[in-house]
Amino acid sequence: MASVRSRVWQDGKQIADDFPFEEISDYLARADTLTWVDLTDPDHELLLGLADELSLDPLAVEDAIERVERPKALRYASHTFFTVYATVCVDEPAAAQDRGDGIPVRLELHKISAFVLPNGLVTVHNDGFDVDGLLERWQDNADLLRYGVGTLVHGLLDSVVDSHFETVQVLDDTIEGLEDGLFDDRAVAAHVQRSTYQVRKELVQLRRVVLPMREVVNGVLRHRHEAGAAAELDASYDDLYDHVLRVTEWTESLRDMVTAMFETNLSLQDSRLNNVMKKLTGWAAIIAVPTAVTGYFGQNVPYPGFGKWWGFLLSVGVIVGIGSTLYVVFKRKNWI
Description:
This protein is an alpha+beta fold. It has ten helices and seven strands. A hairpin with a 2-residue loop joins strand 6 and strand 7 (120-125).
């Protein structure tokens, strides 16, 4: 269900919240205030109404309505528009089992679109995004709100990048768990393969929303400089860009790691199969000895010890001697 939240600050202090929808344009037109408007799961009519009231670009509005859109930052005549994705890795074994992948990790993507106006920020997202956490982040840095809308944008992007870090950490821990069981002979090969493939697929999804973040942050920085924004937030944005680079490198590293692990698992399976074949071959050679000896002594022709008790002992001795010799040879070669 669609919902609207709003808040207004003046000189870093909150002066209004959840005001009527009709007053949005009035607050955004004031140069001495900082306004934030949040739309959760808005319908097309609600968003178009707000777009008409604030003169938002129709193309940006369509991008905000689309369920799936590539992360990007665009500059329009009256505002800057960007789309990003917050991520959540949910640890729910029951839910994972329902999907049939056998691994208790599920990646969730929450699209967030934002319209950056001279004196305010309008955010559009689905119900899964943690808005309360974003408000707490802004409140913890209330002294920076006097520097304008750049503070709100930084807090939003920083929250998104932090969610990427948390997701990568969960996937990293999952990969480490799979690595621990990779050389365990008791591990089920099918489970390891399925789990590795699932993590690899989640990393591909994460990579699609993490890599474009560099372009988004660069675009926001470029538009800030063009608008002549206050330089007090430059250090914060530089730190944000550094975090984006770190999470990108971490994601690429995990992607290479899980690919190597997948290939290593296949190599280990081939090695285990070779060991099994060597053992089968060794035991087959040992079993072939009594078969050959008894078959030879079972011929209906006279042979040494034919019809004598020592002939039986001779055949048994030959079987035990040759079989034991083969066993020792194969054991030294680690074939059995």
